[in-house]
Fold this sequence. Notes:
Helix content is 37%, strand content 14%.
Amino acid sequence: MTSTASAVSGSNLVESREAFVEKTSELLSLEHAAEVEETTALLAECTPTELEEAGIAILKVEAADVTTGLYGRTVATFQKHSFQQPPPALPSHRLSSGDIVGLFDSQHPLSSQPALTGVVHRVKSTGISVVFDDDTDCDVQALVPPVHLALWASDVTLRRYRAALNALTSYRDGPASALLDVCFGTTPPRFNKRPSRPSAERQDGPADDDCCDGSISTCDGTPFKVQLNDSQRRAVVHAIRAVDVACIHGPPGTGKTTTMVEVIRQLVVRNRRVLVCAPSNVAVDNLLERCISIGLKLVVRLGHPSRIQATLLPYCLDSLVRASEAAELCSDIRKEMDGHLRQLNRGKAGGREERRRLYGELKELRKELRQRERRAVSEVLGKSQVVFATCTGADDFALRKFATSREDGGPRPFDVVCIDEAAQALEVGCWIPLLLGRKAILAGDHKQLAPTIKSKEAQRSGLDVTLFQRLQRMWGDQVSSLLDVQYRMSHVIMEWSSETFYDGKLKADQSVEHHTIQDLIPHVDEDAVSPMVWIDAGGLPYMREDDHTATSGGRDRSSRSNRGEAEVVMRYATHLVVEQGLDAGKINIITPYNRQVELLRSMAAENESLSGIPIATVDSFQGREEEVVIISLVRSNIHKAVGFLSDHRRLNVAVTRAKRQLVIVGDSATLEGDPILFSLYTFAQNNGLVRYACEFVNEEDIPQQAAAGPSAPPKRAAQTSASQPSRSDRPPEARRRPVPPAQPPAGKAPEKPAAAVGPPEPRDEENGEVNAEEARLRRILEDVKRRKGEYSFPASLSSYQRRLVHELAESLGLRHESKGEGDDRFICVMSRDRPSTPQPSAAPAQPPTEPPAPATDGPPSTASSPAAAEDAADEEVSHIPDVASGGPGPTAGSLSSRRRQQRKNKKKTPADERPTNADNKVSDEALDEMLAASSRQDWICALPSCSQSTKLIGTTCSYCRRRFCISHAIAEAHGCGDEASRQAKQSFRKEQTAESRGGGCVNESFGKNDWRRREAQKSLQAKIADAQARRKAQHKKS
């Protein structure tokens, strides 16, 4: 037993129950306001057509059928408003079983309050069934068809949370009193040395007093039915012996759900009544399915049938009630109600009095049906030993009455409340079931994702701190038992997570410790064998993320995408499926951002071989696993901003989903700003395989996007794709630090340095030729070394090129350092024999690819005047194409402008602070040749695949500000079509609403003025009536 001092120490880490209730109530209000604002803003700012295109609304539907469900619920099936038979298919949408939807009259905007709200029950290609839980009698077809369906934010969950807070405030001397004292730090957790056992086990079973030490064969005499390891068995014994509360801490792949199933079985063997909960329907169904598989039979699943897995519907409360003795009478009442509904909804009822009579009878029938069904529900619950529900679903009237009411021999609280995935449940949600029992057993992992909170203010204030996390902080190992053997990942994939989040305590089981993708594909290339692969964007401009917001239907959404990464993901997946022969069903693609999910899904749909690969967000993939998992991190920017990747629990979830191979596509240069994220890249370097994005895609493969920033990304030489031959011949050092392959000039053999110093030059495996880009940089550095001079590279170098410069300089024995700040940061290289010079104020605008040959008879001459020195520097910089782009250098106009600006700045800069490469000069002839070439290049169509001149006929695009020939002048022809379409839509909407009172409605005669709308409707009806009267009069005359 823990001392009182420990209890006092633990209590200092938590606020009182009253303070918790007050604080949580305020935070719930903030969270609900954020949810409502998100939904209503979307409905208000988007047109109905845009909402339907986004998949969150279905327009112009009508009720095709109306029936009665459990508790007299009205179930309506909606189909597209059409005279066709069979009815047309519904458009693509996001509505699924369990979603809350609003039903809107077509005469009112979707931003208004819905006429009815319900829950999606079943979704088919031509119809969608919705269950309406409203207690009031509703004639669905009283709404003028067609009507609209749209996702809606409900306050049902908020009401249940507030009810739990009220119950928590007033709870006194109930079965859960001891549990409350432990959870709020008043008393420490208690554990029995020998829990009670069934009489038969107590007589025949071994004493097993010291079962927590060493090997464990039974749980206090009760055999284990599920195959468990020692840590899992210790956790089961720990949970069974708990008096008030116990926690099972299960890192990824350690089998916490398996352990929880055995805990439930052990409780059932001891004749305990158990309430089993989880925050999601998927988690509850998983537990129920596992319990049924080990032979538990007296079970019942609470919840809406539309949210329960189809194979488990025989165990849901609705099915069991219909199979009870009272079901036949309830069935007769339901049939009579369905008959009345058909009369009302098909217009067979007579006048107003007849309809009023039918409504009155429906009300009485519904009341009688509920009474009989509640008695049947109480009967079913009384016979069930284990009840399954979500945490909020435990706020069921029949369940509360059964557990707390003193009627019929009550109350009958549960002996134990088990909550799986407790680290993903809001604490207030956990208290809904916990107040119905005496003891709690929580399983989860607070090192993985916490509950999703929409309000950032509520999250900052601690709404996402769970009860499981608080208990871990307060009582630690006193209340918790760690599962330390995982059965999912190779030890390489597991190791980083274990060291970073679990103090290195995780171990891989022998069955998975060394498994790789080679077990699935015996003849796989060596490049595809490594359990961990990092594909580095390397700071390439065309691999940048897009703008930080995305416009959808006139509304900005804070989500991101990265077309470059998406293309790399698709090519790597194609490489595995098409070339290596891996089954596509064994691959999953995950990413933190919804927009990237949408982009990846659209790209996969166009590739038949990849169309079956599941693509999801990291959050939705928690709890799942796959043989190969590819992660797109998305973030790639010059500011090293990582967004909500800084929530490292999300990263922990992402990297622990893979069994045999984890592939991460990300930009190491961006991740440098976050130590934890960069440690993952470093781990991949040391223990896995690092490849580069330019091995799979080049700039021409990536459509133009906003990610390019204010200036268009430089053109790059063509790179090889994912289908390149294996690099198995390359030594391990080269495989971990590959370089982007490039082609040498046609008909020209690659040049080699006169004296080979340092590591051998990397070679392209396909044709054996020297990498042109590295050779170019090497020649520059070798000339600096030969002349014992100094050279400043431009600030425009990519991260890959910077790294290459540093590595080559080190191998050649040169001094190298980075100077400047921010975007002006550049690399200065000099001979070790040369004294360091003051840091220049700026880097050269463009780098040369190789230095000019030094004079053969003496040192290079210096300029006789400052202006001449600046001109020489310009000549030196401009006579060779850009190292970073591999393409032509600056135009003549840009050179002249830069030269004038440098001369102007020269007067303001002291001589000893001016950057100079005085040792690198070229002749006037080379400058003239370069200026002419640059001028010619400036009049060539900007489309990479076109070489037409634009000097005589051409135009400059108003979106990307580049010049194109007449054939590619239109925006759609060179990649600006999306931007042109977006601006055209905005312009049209602005023109149409300039004088409108509707504030966004295209029809300025209505706007949001209800009075004008009603007057317009009256005028229209009057015109229709007048026309009908004239038509009748003409008919009589004829």
